[in-house]
């Protein structure tokens, strides 16, 4: 049995859409959409693209869920994410502890307001404004020190080459935690 797509449910609700409304707008049966949202079915490419356009994410997220590197990267100090044009998370892999159960639909400053999250949000906005990839090293404060990440941020385009947000990849490069022993 597949893993429920909480991220899809949260994005749909953020757009104030019901499952029936989504199904009607992408020309599929509500039951089929419910199976996609529950993770019991995977949408075809065309349905994935229609869902992504309607709800506001990049359709590749469905492929990322079953990527063979997922288990290999699961315990690595790396974070991958997609954000929309409002800098709200639409997908995240290996999220750090934001203090929230699920960061989908939230901006960094809504999850944890500190110098690190504000710098990360600024990087994302700069990528949107400049429509060019950027890389920065960003320190994030923790309860016991700080952790620095090299964050690579790239503009995220749909198939029509319209800017729809940003994709980020962050790798931990240092920690000053006294008791850090990995995730």
Automatic annotation (TrEMBL):
<dbReference type="InterPro" id="IPR001387">
    <property type="entry name" value="Cro/C1-type_HTH"/>
</dbReference>
<dbReference type="GO" id="GO:0003677">
    <property type="term" value="F:DNA binding"/>
</dbReference>
<dbReference type="InterPro" id="IPR010982">
    <property type="entry name" value="Lambda_DNA-bd_dom_sf"/>
</dbReference>
<dbReference type="Pfam" id="PF01381">
    <property type="entry name" value="HTH_3"/>
</dbReference>
<protein>
    <submittedName>
        <fullName>Helix-turn-helix domain-containing protein</fullName>
    </submittedName>
</protein>
<feature type="domain" description="HTH cro/C1-type">
    <location>
        <begin position="8"/>
        <end position="62"/>
    </location>
</feature>
């Amino acid at each position: 049995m597949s893993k429920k797509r909480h991220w899809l449910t949260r994005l749909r609700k953020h757009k104030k859409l019901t499952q029936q409304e989504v199904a009607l707008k992408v020309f599929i049966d509500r039951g089929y959409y419910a199976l996609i949202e529950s993770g019991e079915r995977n949408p075809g490419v065309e349905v994935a693209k229609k869902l992504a356009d309607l709800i506001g994410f990049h359709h590749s997220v469905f492929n990322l869920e079953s990527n063979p590197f997922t288990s290999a990267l699961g315990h690595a100090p790396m974070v991958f994410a997609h954000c929309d044009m409002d800098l709200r998370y639409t997908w995240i892999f290996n999220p750090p502890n934001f203090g929230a159960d699920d960061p989908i639909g939230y901006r960094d400053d809504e999850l944890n307001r500190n110098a690190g999250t504000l710098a990360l949000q600024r990087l994302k906005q700069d990528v949107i404004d400049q429509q060019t990839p950027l890389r920065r090293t960003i320190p994030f404060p923790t309860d016991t020190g700080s952790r620095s990440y090299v964050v690579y941020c790239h503009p995220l385009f749909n198939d029509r080459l319209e800017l729809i947000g940003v994709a980020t990849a962050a790798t931990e490069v240092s920690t000053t935690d006294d008791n850090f022993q990995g995730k």
